[in-house]
Design a protein that fits this description.
Blueprint: H1 17-20, H2 23-39, H3 43-59, H4 64-71, H5 75-89, H6 91-114, H7 117-128, H8 138-168
């Protein structure tokens, strides 16, 4: 199995304003984008928010290619969601929903592109510390996140390897044996 490096946006070393921003501020950015996705009701506002998030991502020095690599894996799913929502609720609502999801993905990509994984996991553990009184183990929680971050690329890579193997055997269009 080849090593697949798919993660929304792997850490990109740099010294940009976003790299130097405190972790809590980056967490607030992601949280704010997630909450805003429920509050934004106009697709044009969602498009403006997406442009702003993409500009922030590019200002971090991560580059357009990394931005596209962060968004590319979800595009087929978003296209299906968009088509279904367009059929059910109309074009403006479908556009708003898809754009709001993209805003959240780009915000999360900003966080992962500008924060080393160890610092991110330390931040998650410190956020989980107040739950210690309820029996939670913050280090175990951070370890779970670390395993998830490694498992997603591995599973995506395994799926890609199986698909490539099937193609090599001429089975790309026949789902049966």
């Amino acid at each position: 199995m080849s090593g697949h490096g798919f993660l929304f946006a792997n850490y990109v070393p740099g010294n940009s304003l976003l790299h130097r921003a405190p972790l809590w501020l980056k967490f607030l950015l992601v949280l704010g984008c997630g909450m805003a996705s429920f509050l934004i009701v106009d697709w044009m506002v969602a498009a403006a928010a997406l442009v702003l998030m993409c500009a922030l991502f590019l200002l971090s020095g991560a580059g357009f290619r990394r931005l596209f690599r962060a968004v590319r894996p979800v595009l087929p799913v978003l296209a299906a969601i968009g088509l279904f929502q367009w059929w059910q609720l109309g074009g403006p609502t479908a556009a708003r929903i898809v754009l709001n999801v993209l805003v959240c993905i780009v915000a999360a990509s900003i966080l992962t592109a500008t924060t080393p994984v160890q610092r991110l996991l330390d931040g998650v553990a410190s956020l989980a510390r107040p739950f210690r009184r309820f029996g939670a183990d913050p280090e175990r929680f951070a370890l779970t996140i670390a395993i998830m971050l490694r498992s997603i690329p591995f599973i995506a890579g395994a799926y890609s390897d199986v698909r490539d193997s099937a193609r090599a055997r001429g089975l790309e269009r026949n789902p049966g044996p």
